[in-house]
Amino acid sequence: MNLFGMLDLSGSALTAERQRAAVVASNMANAETTHTAEGGPYKRELVVFRARPLQRFPMLLASNGGTPLLPEAARGVSVDEVLADPRPPVLRYEPGNPDADKKGYVAYPNINPVEEMTDLLGAVRSYELNASAVQAAKNMIEQSLDLLR
Asked: CB 3.0 to 4.6 Å from 130: which of 12, 13, 75, 81, for a disulfide?
């Protein structure tokens, strides 16, 4: 893969990891939400990534002799969908709570703060690594241009 393809690949990963971090932040913010517009407690969301073909238009402009610089197998990553976690809610006995059922139990989201922080840390680290890859590609492109002077 050439340097421009590396920039496209890392750029798609940066976007996907940013979305993943936003979903984790939403999960953490709603860890105690017992009532939503749909009814019931907030449902934890999970991010599903999918490989996707990279956009070829910029590479056609940078090609030599009409041959694209990006190979057919080059892939990027994107968020395919955001799913609701199928785990059941956690029931707590709180008879005075307005969201309590007839038996006095309140359904809370099944969100584990340790699990969410681990997911957030993974997203942040992946983002940092891809940002470093973009910076390395940028430096290599600059060095290549300096050699041509």
From this structure: 13
